[in-house]
# Entry
Amino acid sequence: MGSRISFIKTDEQTMLGDTLREFLGSTGSLDTVRDSSLTKVAIDREIWDGLAEMGLLGLHVPEQYGGAGYSFVETAIVFEELGRRVAPVPLLSTVMAVQAILAAGSQEQKMALIPPMVSGDQIAALAVFESAHDLDVVETSATRADNGWVLSGIKRYVIDAPNADVYVVSARTDDGVGLFVVDARAEGVNVTATPSLDATRPLGEVALDEVVVVSEAHLGASSGDGAVRSALDVGVVAMAQEQAGGAQRCLEMATEYASTRYQFGRAIGSFQAVKHMCADMLVSVEHAKSVASHAAHSLDDQEEARIAVPLAKSVCSDAYMETAGNTIQVFGGIGFTWEHDAHLYFKRAKSTSLLLGSVDHYRDRLAEAIGI
# Structure
């Protein structure tokens, strides 16, 4: 196990969260989220451009690649605040794609590819799954050609596929699994939107029909398989922070409503059933926040991360689902209507529990990591 981790935020980290929350609060109500989810791209451009202008898209990325050079803890704070807002922005997909390039790219590739991603000029997506989130299934092929490679295959469950300008694609070569950077506008690239419960985070299928890429598009400095797993671990931790932030906001909405909604001359929060429900939600939220923070601090410690990452996926997914569901119970039938905010959180909770692999898969990983 690694060294002891402190979860106490520094003054700078606290200021980061407060500043971002204030900005997100100034961009309008969740009606904007609903409006954005009705569009094909489902991006709130005001939020996305604001994050870029504040330099928050690459906080943990080294400065030589256009980032700010902080730890992933600062990026995790950004995801926590975005989760509170259910913000429809393609940051999760871009962060995973950037991590894959950091893990597998050469120095020259990192210098060329990452800066436009962390500046917000280019939306990137990680395209690695083909069948039921099983990474061992890689049927997409990469064949050497005179001027580079030819890619053929289909990638599924690609987060923000309809929005991406570039994809980081896993494909099988003669030497194993490799990663390739593919322009979304390249001939032979066809993207189809995938119906999803959470319309604020579009998914898609990326079909590659003999797509030709140059030799430099192959991220060959490291194992493609190892880089994919590194990128997904970063995605899981980012998503756990988002889940914790969303669960916290659900708790706030539920307790506020329980203290102001009166029935039989009493606030419904005084009824034992509602009181106990809110208390259970508080315990779940605090647990999720603690586990998510631990995972964010653990990413640089491989041994610690083996436990912290799957634990974060398991705990935070369950906590968000429980809290979002109980919030609807507190509000009653109105909570699941289109006009109410609670259903947005419930749909995000359900979708994040399934993204990047099931909770059961990560529980199996956790059991293996701790030897049971």
Q: What stands out?
A: Residues 11-118 form a domain with the Butyryl-Coa Dehydrogenase, subunit A; domain 1 fold (CATH 1.10.540.10).
